[in-house]
């Protein structure tokens, strides 16, 4: 399969591009590199020293003999996008190319507008480009479990059958996103569903949970292939962030009561889920939604697991509940379904002591690069 | 009350601004006048000769002694928006200032992007402006009944209580919008709901049906106060369009089978609904949704009513079913609730022979201005 990974220079995108290439797919990366620019603007940095994309790809070629094409540009620039698609002619587009941080979107009005216009318009451009140039191309779009919020009923995969006043219909699952970033993904989902219905496009929306881990078989092959790992208050996510905090002796920052329950998955499962979606395309006209996570944990659970794993390797780990910068329920019902990817063959890597051990050791290796000023969350929702 | 009507130079906005002014509110209009510009670009025009906004307002002042302030500019320009709010200090903002045509949004990629970026970013700017400058100001936002699509269950007002696997929650009603325009309103609704939750803003989302009629007490006072009336394939809407077609002897253009059922209301009820919402503000933190229509009709019903009313005044009216340019169900269940505005005191003007008679006569008066080339729909959804 010819697979274009949009946002292939990012955390999930990079791991995915290498994995798909290693599995024998013809892969190209399209990326504007703006994620590195945002790091620079916010004066934050990945824990790991990531090489420029061109060096990464050269090293991949040298190691494996495989070539990954590179298109550097912005999908909000439609003519660039069209030209790239005409050159590469993908069978599937994996779309990671969005601003993906909730705190980033809540910094101020400019960042909220940037997030929604960048994400919504980029995605609209992809929909039109597929319609105009490659109507059979399968769009594999990264959504987020955060689209659902925390309803008091079970979360289904994209749709829910509702009985109401003696009648019944299966409708899009109601969305209660918790930031302007999460909202942008909800907007995307609605736009994609419409394009599938009206133009017969085929799309899979992957409502992904929180991804943890850093090593995949491919990114672990060489220092120049190393993946990014974010720990700062804007781009860092739970679990990865906790492991880095543990490594440098910073108390783990649990927001509020820590009863927030979320779906999580190992980055080695992210790349596998993408391949499963690519290998099993949606039908023409179908808007398919998979919930892409393997386990549910509360934030407090995660902190305790990191504390225990840290103790086992001699790290003294404290847990601090800090004022929640977000507006979210800290105790709530949460039961989300995730059978569709399993049914298609996903064999999860469940969170294990060995993964935590490996991640803690990895974080320790690079702890000299940590800027302690960037650890605490500075962006408030209110 | 001090009420800022954004989009106050448009069809609903103009009638609303004058009505609120006449009822004793302090009214200002904020408008970029881009609606007139789009008419020029598409080479279409209102049936009625509308005066420039400055002349309209001067005439209103001369006739009634009442002053309506005018702010000309674009809400996507945040500093202009903030400056206008700081000057006028509204108690309520009525937000009509969006691209409001479904066919316009479906012309091509550029018009889809224009519609979503204009509407979503303009609305985001308003949310931030209220938060920063006037946190108590009540946002009265025009949504559309088209946000709901045509589900096979009853349509509630914004929220639905769902029982699922033995648990229960009241969630946002699932949305199935039918164009990039309708999608933009769904995006707005999600963004507003979030702003109410996180910042404690107060907002009312008015999911309005198809508006018909042209005369209100105020716009009928003088030729210079006349309201716009669109009949073209892009901005014309069912019923108004049918009356104009009948007046000039053009067959009524029913799309497909005509079984599409929609909520409709008289423009004299639009202005009253807005006043009801303004006079009964939402609570701080409340995102309130009212379905703003008074009756349900199928498109075929409307065509038959116009045919009969035309016959009564000597017009020979034909009805033509034309290929449906849209992608929509032409026969479907549709039962939408609309009790909230009635409970707050709305006394509907139901569709009557006298209204149709008056609208047909009005259309006949201006029929010399019709460009017959602009009647048929040229924009296709597929």
From TrEMBL, chains A, B:
<dbReference type="Pfam" id="PF01370">
    <property type="entry name" value="Epimerase"/>
</dbReference>
<dbReference type="InterPro" id="IPR001509">
    <property type="entry name" value="Epimerase_deHydtase"/>
</dbReference>
<comment type="similarity">
    <text>Belongs to the NAD(P)-dependent epimerase/dehydratase family.</text>
</comment>
<protein>
    <submittedName>
        <fullName>NAD-dependent epimerase/dehydratase family protein</fullName>
    </submittedName>
</protein>
<feature type="domain" description="NAD-dependent epimerase/dehydratase">
    <location>
        <begin position="3"/>
        <end position="291"/>
    </location>
</feature>
<dbReference type="InterPro" id="IPR036291">
    <property type="entry name" value="NAD(P)-bd_dom_sf"/>
</dbReference>
């Amino acid at each position: 399969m010819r697979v274009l990974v949009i946002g292939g220079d990012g955390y999930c995108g990079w791991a995915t591009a290498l994995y798909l290439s290693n599995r024998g797919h013809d892969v190209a990366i399209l990326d504007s590199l703006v994620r590195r620019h945002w790091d620079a603007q916010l004066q934050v940095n990945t824990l790991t020293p990531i090489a420029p994309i061109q060096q990464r790809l050269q090293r991949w070629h040298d190691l494996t003999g495989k070539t990954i094409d590179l298109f550097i540009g912005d999908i909000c620039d439609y003519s660039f996008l069209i030209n790239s698609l005409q050159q590469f002619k993908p069978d599937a587009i994996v779309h990671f190319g969005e601003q993906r941080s909730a705190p980033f979107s809540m910094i101020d009005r400019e960042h909220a507008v940037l997030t929604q216009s960048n994400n919504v318009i980029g995605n609209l451009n992809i929909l039109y480009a597929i319609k105009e140039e490659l109507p059979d191309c399968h769009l594999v779009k990264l959504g987020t479990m955060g689209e659902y919020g925390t309803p008091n009923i079970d979360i289904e995969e994209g749709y829910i059958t509702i009985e109401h006043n003696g009648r019944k219909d299966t409708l899009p699952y109601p969305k209660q996103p918790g930031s302007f970033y999460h909202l942008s993904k909800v907007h995307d989902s609605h736009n994609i569903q419409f394009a599938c219905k009206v133009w017969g496009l085929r799309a899979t929306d992957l409502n992904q949970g929180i991804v943890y881990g850093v090593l995949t078989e491919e990114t672990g092959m060489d220092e120049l292939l190393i993946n990014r790992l974010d720990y700062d208050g804007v781009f860092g996510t739970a679990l990865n962030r906790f492991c880095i905090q543990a490594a440098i002796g910073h108390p783990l920052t649990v927001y509020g009561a820590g009863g927030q329950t979320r779906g999580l998955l190992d980055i080695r499962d992210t790349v596998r889920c993408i391949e499963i979606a690519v290998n099993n395309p949606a039908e023409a006209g179908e808007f398919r939604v998979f919930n892409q996570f393997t386990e549910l944990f509360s934030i407090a659970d995660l902190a305790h697991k990191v504390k225990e794993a840290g103790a086992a390797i001699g790290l003294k780990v404290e847990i601090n509940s800090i004022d929640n910068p977000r507006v979210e329920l800290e105790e709530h019902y949460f039961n989300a379904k995730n059978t569709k990817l399993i049914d298609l063959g996903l064999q999860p890597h469940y969170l294990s002591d060995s993964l935590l051990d490996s991640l803690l050791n990895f974080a320790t290796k690079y702890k000299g690069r940590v800027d302690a000023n960037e650890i605490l969350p500075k962006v408030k929702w209110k």
